[in-house]
Amino acid sequence: MPHRLMIKDRNDVLTISFQDMVNYHGREFIGGVAMAFKLMELACCLLSPDETPSREKFVILLGVHGPGIIDGLELVTRAKSRGTLLVDPPAAFAKDAPDAADGLGGKYYFEIDYGGKKLVLSLKHGLLPPEFITLAYKTHDGTLTPADAVRLSILKEEIAEFLLSKEAASLFDFQLVSPAKSFQQN
Hints:
The protein has about 190 residues and is of the alpha+beta class. The protein has helices at about 20-25, 30-45, 65-75, 80, 130-140, 145-165; strands spanning about 5-10, 10-15, 60, 85, 110-115, 115-125, 170-175. The protein has a five-stranded mixed β-sheet. A two-stranded antiparallel sheet has the order 1-2.
């Protein structure tokens, strides 16, 4: 079954597929693209359950500098080009979320605001293979061998396939919070 999101852009309703995200970003960080797709799938369902969400209402904080995640979210929400996407790994340092191999100490932690409703999410612990994190770190410290690069590429594809095969709600720990509350992770 094709993966698709519906999103309003002013007076138009757009259908954005996972393949559209891949076409926009490429395959280099395809696991991040898949994660962005699943983040938006869950956010749209929880934050705008009764109508197609409008892309201009999204404000997003990322605790990871993930190019695939950023591009995937940008394609759906245009939050980066609208200036409503904040990539701030230090904001996630104290959160109970898995470490991300972004080279900046980030975590797979996200805050999505939509029209005053806030959704706080983190990727569930243990979903990403430790081998992926180890190899991804090697890209930042310059120790990645050609064989490691091939293996890392395979792992990224496997991670994307895994994420896409799961229900979005099963991938994240999440909580809807009122705008007045601070973001506390359970």
